[in-house]
Amino acid sequence: MSTKEKVVVTGFQPSGRLHIGNYLGMFKQAAAMQKEKGLKRYYFIADYHSLTQKYDPKQKSREIMEMAIDALALGIDPKKSTLFIQSHVPHHTNLAWIFNTLTPVGELERMVSYKEKVSQGQIANAGLLTYPILMAADILIYDADFVPVGEDQIQHLELTRAIARKFNQRFGKTFKEPQALLTKTPRVMSLNDPSNKMSKSIPSGCLFIFDSEAETTKKIMAAQTDSHKTIGFDPKNRPAVSNLVLIFAAFRGVSEKEIVKEFKNVGYKEFKAALAKEINSSLKPLRTRKKELMKEKSKITKLLEQNAKKMDRVASKKIEAVKSKVGLI
Ligand code: AMP
Ligand code: TRP
């Protein structure tokens, strides 16, 4: 086995339906990394993370399974990537414990995502506060080089790097400092409020990948625009229309300029109809694939079990090294 192989790690929470922000901001990148040689790809369902927010225990296992199916439908290829469930590899939380003891509470309280969630009325349980430490463990335990994420996770990645540095300084070189991989659309904004990122917490402005075509079209046609009446790309002054242009460009795989040029002589209605068509045709194969995968649950369960065993072996080696460095026996 080559030691030169670089490692790509990312996780996604099984808490609700995936939207085009998840797709354009992260999954597309994670899937694209499968085309590159010399990489190990470890992609996991962050089920422990998802317990930090309100949830229904009766729904959880279904959500986890559905997230596995969705990841596969979005292009995660089990022949090229190892897809697994976080809680099946307990060394993530073992390492997180050690990192807990190295991280000042003040640094966690500064995390924007924590502050946002608390300001939205979520109970500040200790897990919500320490969640970035578990995320650091998820990444560092595999010596990740690259982490595909959306922009909202950058601060957590910075903390991950800081934890790696701190550990290395105190106990000797043990961890690599990973690098975030952003797409050209690291922050897709809400369709009805361009000052907020697209998120499932505002469903009307959120385009879910597995919505019906009719629902997708309806949401696009209702998306906020502005009073200019013509298409343009100017994120600062025209955030709503620019967000739509960005989404269009990302789905079609062209630049924003090309979209603006193509639609410069049409009104918003026609532009939006074309955008809805583009999105629906791009998502069609994913939607079809999901229906097929829904029939393969037992095969997927087996895959997840096998992969957990494989990842446990990888994680075990690292945790043994870490324990010995900190003086545990
Ligand atoms: P989550 O559903 O919060 O686990 O997010 C999964 C991935 O999607 C993470 O890498 C997020 O940073 C990314 N993501 C979530 N929302 C957006 C968005 N509106 N734009 C771009 N990326 C996003
Ligand atoms: N915090 C990420 C999110 O909410 C999910 C996540 C957990 C993750 N562990 C990770 C992402 C490790 C990248 C690497 O989207």
Automatic annotation (TrEMBL):
InterPro entries: aa-tRNA-synth_I_CS (IPR001412), aa-tRNA-synth_Ic (IPR002305), Rossmann-like_a/b/a_fold (IPR014729), Trp-tRNA-ligase (IPR002306), Trp-tRNA-ligase_bac-type (IPR024109), Trp-tRNA_synthetase (IPR050203). This is Tryptophan--tRNA ligase. It comes from Candidatus Colwellbacteria bacterium CG10_big_fil_rev_8_21_14_0_10_41_28. ATP binds at residues 13-15, 21-22, 150-152, 188, 197-201. Pfam families: tRNA-synt_1b. Its EC number is 6.1.1.2. The keyword Heme does not apply. One of its GO terms (biological process) is tryptophanyl-tRNA aminoacylation. It catalyses: tRNA(Trp) + L-tryptophan + ATP = L-tryptophyl-tRNA(Trp) + AMP + diphosphate + H(+). It comes from the Bacteria. L-tryptophan binds at residue 138. GO terms for molecular function: ATP binding; tryptophan-tRNA ligase activity. Catalyzes the attachment of tryptophan to tRNA(Trp). Homodimer. Belongs to the class-I aminoacyl-tRNA synthetase family.
